[in-house]
């Protein structure tokens, strides 16, 4: 894997009744250091990383990642009985018992796994390696006994090629993001004036308007990484685990030494209203929201390298106390683009495709392509819709050439208008 490789945006793999869903793309760069990947196996002691040689999953076997059976001994009636019987605190004895169970049940590295995967012992841990993320994760699920679906989301998304200059039609939002990036790059000036840059940014608007791309672009502009937090990393069916997950995420953020955008995508699906709770689910929502507020109150003071960005399609579902000033100092609407904005977005998309794909002797677009006319024929469409129309036009040309064996001509205005018409219908 010597070359830089961009993984697919969404990949679903099912095997033996189990499902793995890989969300978003991520880059594997030759010579780059290993980077962590987010996934929804936090309670099984799995640490998943990506590096220039592929993927590695370390199954950490310790008292902090215990089988469910062993957890019974760490408290409750069982712990009390052990305390009375042996004169030891139930939690202490439970940890000892759990470690013994974990080590005695650890699979052999000779377990029958995918031939693309290697499994080796490293002290008390198992390390699984593979160039194929689906093959590696399915093996991890087999070893840990996890039941699908499992979601894997990159901590550092593929934002290397996304800049604020690539964002079309959002001049006001982009201008404020540029100011945030400048404040990151000049901490000495901020300190001299006693100025505090925004701690959090809330982006709200319809789906497909570029909220996530803005967060990726901000990470690039500040010369840092994007740490994307998705619902499976936080919400857990076991009582207390969701709260622990929030605390763990912020604890990790406090130790980051590089500029980092901590992105809570689809924020309303993670934390919504707080208030009177009539059931266990409501109590969990209140607890998660309360911890989130506490963590946000002190994050910027303890680590100015981190800025939190939250995105939502439904701002009315987010409690105002969660996103008040002091927690989220910028609240920016990302609307459906206007005609002028659509023309800008199309122009930027076309320039990007030409730069990536055109070669001597191969033209991708004809001379008659008119972005203003295309914008006039696409009212109500978002940036994601326009990108999809271009994808369909590219696919039609590629399939035409593949079927006939004859080189197809460049994509013309009529082809793009047809793609837009099909998308709108």
Distance between the termini: 42 Å
List unreliable stretches of 5+ residues. Answer: 1-9, 63-110, 156-160
Radius of gyration, in Å, reads: 25 Å
Mean pLDDT: 76
- Main-sheet strand order equals 2-3-10-5-6-7-9-8
Helix amount: 40-55%
Q: Class by helix and strand content?
A: alpha/beta
Number of separate strands: 15
Largest sheet: 8 strands, mixed
Shape: globular
Number of helices: 15
Record the SSE blueprint.
Blueprint: E1 5-6, E2 10-15, E3 18-23, E4 27-28, E5 35-39, E6 46-51, E7 54-59, H1 68-71, H2 76-86, H3 90-104, E8 117-122, E9 125-130, H4 133-144, E10 150-154, H5 171-185, H6 187-192, E11 200-204, H7 211-221, E12 225-229, H8 231-234, H9 241-254, E13 260-264, H10 267-270, H11 280-302, E14 306-312, E15 330-333, H12 339-357, H13 371-376, H14 383-404, H15 413-424
Parallel strand pairs: 3-10, 11-14, 11-15, 12-13, 13-14
Antiparallel strand pairs: 1-4, 2-3, 5-6, 5-10, 6-7, 7-9, 8-9
General description of the model:
- It contains 15 helices and 15 strands.
- With 425 residues, it is of the alpha/beta class.
- It is globular and about 60 Å long.
- Residues 1-9, 63-110 and 156-160 have low confidence and may be disordered.
Task: Jot down its keywords.
alpha/beta; 18% strand; 15 helices; 8-stranded mixed β-sheet; disordered N terminus; 425 residues; 5-stranded parallel β-sheet; globular; 15 strands
């Amino acid at each position: 894997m010597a070359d830089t490789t961009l993984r697919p945006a969404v990949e679903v793999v099912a095997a033996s009744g189990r499902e793995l869903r890989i969300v978003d793309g991520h880059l594997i760069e030759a010579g780059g250091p290993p980077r962590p990947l987010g996934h929804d196996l936090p309670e099984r002691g799995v640490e998943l990383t990506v590096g220039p040689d592929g993927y590695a999953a370390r199954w950490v076997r310790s008292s902090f990642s215990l089988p469910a059976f062993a957890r019974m001994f760490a408290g409750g009636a069982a712990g009390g009985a052990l305390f009375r019987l042996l004169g030891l605190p139930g939690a202490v004895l439970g940890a000892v018992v759990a470690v013994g169970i974990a080590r005695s049940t650890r699979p052999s590295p000779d377990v029958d796994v995918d031939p693309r995967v290697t499994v080796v012992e490293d002290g008390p841990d198992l390390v699984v390696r593979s160039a194929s993320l689906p093959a590696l994760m399915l093996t991890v699920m087999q070893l840990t006994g996890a039941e699908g679906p499992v979601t894997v989301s990159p901590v550092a998304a593929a934002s290397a090629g996304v800049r604020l200059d690539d964002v079309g039609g959002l001049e006001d939002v982009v201008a404020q993001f540029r100011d945030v990036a400048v404040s990151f790059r000049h901490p000495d000036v901020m300190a001299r004036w006693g100025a505090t840059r925004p701690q959090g940014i809330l982006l709200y608007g319809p789906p497909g308007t570029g909220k996530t791309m803005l967060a990726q672009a901000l990470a690039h502009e500040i010369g840092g990484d994007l740490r994307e937090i998705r619902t499976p990393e936080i919400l857990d069916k076991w009582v207390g685990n969701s709260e622990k997950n929030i605390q763990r995420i912020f604890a990790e953020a406090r130790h980051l030494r590089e500029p980092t955008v901590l992105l809570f995508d689809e924020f309303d699906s993670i934390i919504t209203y707080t208030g009177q709770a009539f059931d266990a689910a409501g109590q969990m929502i209140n607890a998660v929201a309360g911890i989130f507020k506490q963590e946000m109150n002190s994050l910027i003071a303890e680590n100015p390298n981190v800025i939190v960005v939250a995105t939502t399609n439904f701002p009315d579902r987010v409690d105002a106390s969660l996103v008040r000033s002091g927690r989220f100092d910028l609240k920016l609407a990302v609307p459906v683009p206007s005609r002028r904005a659509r023309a800008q977005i199309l122009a930027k998309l076309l320039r990007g495709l030409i730069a990536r794909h055109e070669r001597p002797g191969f033209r991708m677009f004809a001379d008659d392509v008119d972005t203003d006319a295309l914008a006039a024929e696409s009212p109500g469409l978002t940036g994601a819709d326009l990108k999809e129309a271009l994808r369909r036009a590219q696919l039609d040309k590629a399939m035409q050439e593949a079927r006939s064996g004859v080189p197809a001509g460049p994509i013309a205005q009529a082809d793009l208008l047809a793609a837009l018409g099909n998308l709108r219908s």
